[in-house]
Specification:
This protein is mainly α and 496 residues long. It has 17 helices and no strands. Helix 6 (171-183) runs parallel beside helix 9 (233-255) and helix 12 (352-379) runs antiparallel to helix 15.
Length: 496
């Protein structure tokens, strides 16, 4: 690849990430300002103002925040994909490692969300003694789990990578990235998990700073290690670990500061407290973990049925396609997640009429967004693919894969709105079940389709599961609507 073109991609990557960081910073500053105003005028905002206006005001900023967040992972893949000569194979190797990274991060979420929720409840009740106990136990369990996971994954990484779809060609890249990244698991999990407790103590800007520190350092070090020092995939992994180390240091030092109402300590793990933490954090953990399993299954299936060199080509294309899908699913999560406080508020106020309007307008916003992305996917996917590679074999397959993956993204918007809406109504068991059913269908279709047809037919697992899941979610919502939301509704009968 010409040096000029490589430099261009590096500049584009740096520009996109820098711009994203600036937008996130501005958004969080505005969010803090709105939060202060919201405390003074809570009822007027969610109880009386126009629903369409509120949906736009709340959901759109969340949508863009999610969009710029996902640019980080995409741009990292751009750097790797544009490594001279070996970029395509290196990208496939990193693609094999991607679900492992997500799986490891999910353990930070398990103890971070689970612990911080219990911590906030105790703080709200004025029980600082038990709040301190929960914080310390979360820290202790994260240390134990992170060390255990590091040891397990380092000892089994060769076997795991082979299971997850690495070939003779991509294995060296995957092994290099996996070894270095896993060695930094300790810092990644502590940074992710303990950062929740900073926000839980009323310091959202400090919590945001943790993310900014890691992102900025990674932005600076990625091109330095990958290109200037010619470390390739190893450089990308080293940059990530160093960024996580800095984030971890900041989090732990912040939690030890005197301005914290509950300062960080360490205790002997209490099994009872640990059980409570895991019980609360299991749902978000399971959702993240199953995402990893699906990607692992897809990579393994593509490698097995593709065989040899074509299997590597399929995994490279799948990595590009999955990056594109993040540009669709992440903003949708922003729209539906941003609307949750509005639904929850009116649930508490026993206003089913405003809940119905919120569902309608959020659905309209998601529908319009996915309709636009569907058209873009039909006519302009090649421009996105060219950012990663200009190799005809990879580019042609990735363009085809994008068109296949996005066949049912419009119905998928119904699934997202319903699942997150039901969560906001306290129906977490139903929403979690709908999500897991979708992923179960995805997993089954990924394994079965290549058995019946060609290896690349595994790409059709996405639209198959999206279509079926959307129909199922709409059916379930129909009965919930009739029982709880129609007319004056019977919101009080919902069991939290």
């Amino acid at each position: 690849m010409p040096v000029r073109r490589r430099a261009f991609f590096c500049f584009i990557g740096f520009f996109l990430q820098s711009t994203s960081l600036f937008l996130i910073f501005c958004y969080n500053v505005l969010a803090v300002m709105r939060k202060r105003e919201y405390k003074m005028k809570k009822t007027n905002d969610f109880g009386r103002d126009s629903i369409p206006l509120l949906v736009l005001k709340i959901s759109v900023p969340f949508m863009f925040a999610q969009l710029v967040n996902v640019l980080y992972s995409i741009v990292d893949r751009i750097y790797v994909g544009n490594i001279p000569v070996t970029g395509a194979d290196a990208l496939a190797g990193v693609g094999v490692c991607a679900p492992i990274v997500t799986l490891l991060s999910s353990f930070g979420t398990l103890f971070g969300i689970g612990g911080s929720v219990l911590f906030s409840v105790r703080m709200g009740a004025g029980d600082e003694k038990n709040a301190r106990k929960i914080l310390a136990n979360s820290f202790s369990y994260l240390i134990i789990v992170s060390l255990a996971l590091t040891l397990i994954f380092l000892l089994t990484k060769e076997q795991l990578l082979n299971w997850f779809g690495a070939s003779d060609v991509t294995f060296p890249y995957a092994d290099t990235y996996m070894t270095i990244y896993t060695a930094g698991t300790f810092f990644a999990l502590l940074s992710t998990g303990m950062n929740y407790f900073i926000t839980a103590q009323g310091f959202p800007l400090l919590g945001m700073t943790t993310t900014l520190i890691g992102a900025v350092i990674n932005i600076i070090l990625d091109p330095v290690f990958i290109f200037l020092m010619d470390m390739g995939v190893a450089g990308a992994a080293v940059a990530t670990v160093l960024a996580q180390m800095c984030s971890c240091t900041f989090v732990l030092c912040t939690l030890r500061r005197k301005k914290m109402q509950i300062r960080l300590g360490i205790v002997k793990p209490d099994p009872f407290v640990g059980k409570q933490i895991v019980k609360i954090g299991f749902s978000p953990f399971l959702i993240l973990a199953t995402d990893s399993i699906i990607i692992i299954a897809l990579n393994a299936v593509l490698q097995y049925y593709g065989g040899g060199r074509y299997g590597d080509t399929l995994i490279t294309a799948a990595t590009i396609v999955q990056s594109y899908m993040l540009l669709i699913t992440s903003p949708m999560l922003g729209i539906t997640g941003g609307s949750q406080p509005l639904i929850s508020f009116n649930y508490g106020a026993n206003r089913p009429d405003r809940i119905r309007k919120t569902f309608f307008w959020v659905l309209m916003l998601c529908f319009c967004f996915t309709a636009v992305m569907f058209l873009i996917s039909r006519f302009m996917p090649q421009y996105f693919v060219r950012i990663f590679t200009d190799e005809p074999e990879y580019a042609e397959l990735a363009v085809w894969g994008i068109k296949v993956f996005t066949l049912m993204i419009v119905p998928l918007s119904f699934q997202y709105v319903i699942v997150d809406g039901l969560t906001a109504l306290g129906m977490t068991k139903i929403s979690l079940s709908l999500s897991l059913v979708r992923k179960g269908i995805y997993f089954g279709a990924t394994c079965i389709l290549p058995l019946l047809f060609a290896a690349r037919s595994a790409f059709y697992a996405e639209p198959v599961c999206d279509g079926i899941a959307a129909c199922l979610s709409c059916t379930v919502f129909f009965f919930i609507y009739r029982k709880y939301l129609r007319g004056e509704g019977r919101l009080g009968e919902i069991k939290l």
